[in-house]
């Protein structure tokens, strides 16, 4: 059973895996992981039993293979990654849900240390597995600093070129590959990746400052350095320039999904810059008071007023994510009236969703 729903990245990876290893998928851990994902993407309770069965079987074969290192393969890493992605997609990030993602990274490192060659597909997908694991581990670490999370403490950086390459694999396996713009998708991957990490860093640092912590967690600097590096990569800047982007762009006319996407990427770009500006100061309060932070906050709020308030199609396009930027903008702008109105907008936004 292979799902035919378009525009689901993991579904595209399932097809790519089938093309690489054969449509029968001889690796049982991966076969059951793919079937579990297929059930996971379907609507209705009738698929719940299939989801639970194939998830259980995927775990069984993973455990069995790991007990005999000679049988471990890159397909097991992909299976573990898929199980972790499903667990993360079901709800809040919890340490237990990270075990499969951490296992995927561990398998890749083991195979590399053993000198085993990897397929061309896995050479491209390995940075995706590291990136995905990296993001979810960072969020879990910052918001739930338990021992089980802290044991996994390697922060890896994925380049814009690597993001473009795995987006190409995803696009080629999509039902409508012609509608994918790889550079745009890579830009989205960068921005969407870092906004959650940076917001979690801000929350964690703010809590620490109110508790009079003398030092920030080391991971905060790693995230900040990685975000600044990603936004200054020549390939990223070139792609953004091609798209027509800048930090303070002129308004973009509405009327098509392409316009919606273009405007949304620019807003994400400014939102990530706002988060970096806040976090790069010596304290969160000082960062919020910076002129550049307040300028970006006003721009984000203006974007919301001009676009979201009167455009239901665009509101549906951007999903829930914009409330993160509204929250940062509300913190940065000093007016109490503005803070109240932003709070009202966020609650209205969440109710709408």
Pick out its properties:
353 residues, mainly alpha, 71% helix, 0% strand, disordered N terminus
Structure overview:
This protein has 353 residues and is mainly α. It has two domains: 1-178, no CATH class; 181-353, no CATH class. The chain has helices at residues 9-21, 28-40, 48-66, 74-89, 99-113, 120-143, 147-150, 160-172, 182-210, 218-231, 234-243, 257-279, 284-289, 291-308, 312-318, 322-332, 336-352. Helix 4 runs antiparallel to helix 5, helix 4 (74-89) packs parallel to helix 6 (120-143) and helix 9 (182-210) packs across helix 11 (234-243). It is globular, with a radius of gyration of 21 Å. It starts with 8 loop residues before the first helix and ends with a helix. 41% of the residues are buried. Residues 1-7, 249-258 and 349-353 have low confidence and may be disordered.
């Amino acid at each position: 059973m292979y799902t035919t729903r378009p525009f689901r990245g993991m579904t595209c990876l399932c097809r790519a895996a089938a093309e690489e290893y054969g449509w029968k998928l001889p690796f049982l851990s991966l076969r059951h992981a793919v079937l579990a994902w297929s059930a996971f993407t379907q609507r209705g309770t009738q698929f719940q039993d299939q989801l639970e069965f194939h998830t259980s079987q995927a775990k069984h074969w993973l455990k069995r293979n790991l007990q005999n290192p000679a049988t471990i393969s890159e397909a097991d890493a992909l299976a573990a990654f898929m199980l972790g992605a499903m667990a993360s997609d079901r709800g809040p990030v919890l340490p237990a849900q990270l075990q499969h993602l951490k296992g995927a990274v561990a398998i890749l490192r083991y195979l590399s240390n053993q000198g085993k060659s990897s397929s061309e597909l896995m050479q491209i997908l390995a940075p995706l597995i590291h990136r995905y694991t990296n993001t979810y581990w960072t969020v879990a670490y910052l918001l739930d600093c338990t021992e089980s999370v802290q044991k996994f403490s390697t922060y890896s950086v994925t380049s814009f070129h690597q993001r473009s390459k795995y987006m190409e694999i995803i696009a080629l396996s999509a039902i409508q590959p012609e509608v994918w713009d790889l550079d745009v998708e890579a830009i989205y991957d960068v921005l969407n990746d870092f906004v959650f990490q940076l917001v979690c860093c801000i929350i964690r640092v703010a809590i620490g400052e109110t508790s009079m912590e003398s030092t920030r967690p080391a991971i905060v600097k790693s995230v900040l350095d990685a975000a600044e590096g990603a936004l200054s990569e020549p390939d990223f800047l070139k792609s953004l320039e091609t798209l027509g982007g800048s930090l303070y762009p002129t308004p973009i006319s509405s009327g098509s999904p392409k316009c919606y996407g273009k405007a949304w990427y620019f807003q994400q770009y400014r939102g990530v810059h706002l988060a970096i500006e806040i976090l790069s100061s010596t304290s969160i309060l000082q960062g919020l008071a910076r002129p550049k932070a307040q300028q970006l906050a006003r721009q984000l709020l203006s974007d919301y007023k001009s676009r979201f308030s009167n455009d239901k199609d665009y509101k549906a396009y951007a999903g829930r994510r914009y409330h993160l930027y509204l929250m940062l903008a509300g913190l940065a702008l000093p007016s109490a009236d503005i803070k109240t109105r932003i709070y009202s907008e966020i609650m209205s936004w969440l109710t709408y969703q």
